[in-house]
């Protein structure tokens, strides 16, 4: 069966939590606190309207997840944002690309004018390359804004994709 992207539900959390916890603990891509409980992480990740969370599932196994919605409330709600996690066991299989393409289309369909990623760790070269291949560009880098476990203080890219085209 081909992988399918569908809305995430609270019933999916037990399958998401192990790789969420592993990715956060690695200390290379997310600035979430290391001591989040499963319930706290679920509340951070599973978006509700106007946001949305999805999973990419294959043969009943969740390979990745994304959350998306407005970057800011009020006068900033015309620009979207998103976050992504791919299970380490599914890396290199195009899961991130499929989720990225889905998120871009979701924002277009919802009428957003652009997507802004606020904090792409500069040493996360696979993610930077993926977002650039989908048309995002780096509009700035905040130096030493992230404490990488492997690299020490590194920058956070702000990346932007206009959707008006």
The total beta strand count reads 7
- Major sheet size, sense and barrel closure: 7 strands, mixed
- Name the average pLDDT: 95
What is the general shape? globular
| Broad structural category | alpha+beta
Number of helical stretches of at least 4 residues: 4
Binned, the helix content reads 25-40%
CATH topology: Aminopeptidase
CATH class: Alpha Beta
Which strand order do you get reading across the main beta sheet? 1-2-3-4-5-7-6
Evaluate the radius of gyration. Answer: 15 Å
Number of domains: 1
- State the CATH superfamily name: Gcn5-related N-acetyltransferase (GNAT)
Detail the poorly predicted runs: none
Helices and strands, in order, run as EHHEEEHEHEE
- Proper CATH architecture: 3-Layer(aba) Sandwich
What does this structure look like?
The chain has a single domain (4-162), classed as Gcn5-related N-acetyltransferase (GNAT) (Aminopeptidase). It has 165 residues and is an alpha+beta fold. The protein is globular, with a radius of gyration of 15 Å. The chain has 4 helices and 7 strands; from the N terminus they run E-H-H-E-E-E-H-E-H-E-E. It starts with a strand and ends with a strand. A hairpin with a 2-residue loop joins strand 2 (52-58) and strand 3 (61-70). Strands 1-2-3-4-5-7-6 form a 7-stranded mixed sheet.
């Amino acid at each position: 069966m081909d992988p399918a992207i569908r809305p995430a539900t609270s019933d999916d959390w037990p399958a998401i939590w192990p790789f969420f916890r592993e990715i956060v603990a690695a200390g290379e891509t997310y600035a979430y606190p290391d001591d989040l409980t499963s319930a706290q992480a679920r509340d951070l990740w599973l978006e509700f309207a106007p946001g949305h969370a999805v999973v990419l599932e294959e043969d009943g196994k969740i390979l990745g997840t994304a959350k998306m919605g407005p970057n800011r409330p009020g006068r900033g709600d015309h620009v979207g944002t998103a976050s992504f996690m791919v299970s380490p066991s599914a890396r290199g299989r195009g899961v991130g690309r499929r989720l990225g393409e889905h998120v871009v289309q979701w924002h277009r369909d919802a009428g957003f004018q652009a997507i802004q990623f606020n904090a792409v760790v500069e040493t996360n070269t696979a993610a930077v390359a993926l977002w650039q291949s989908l048309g995002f560009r780096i509009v700035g880098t905040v130096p030493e804004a992230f404490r990488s476990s492997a690299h020490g203080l590194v920058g956070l890219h702000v990346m932007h994709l206009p959707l008006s085209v």
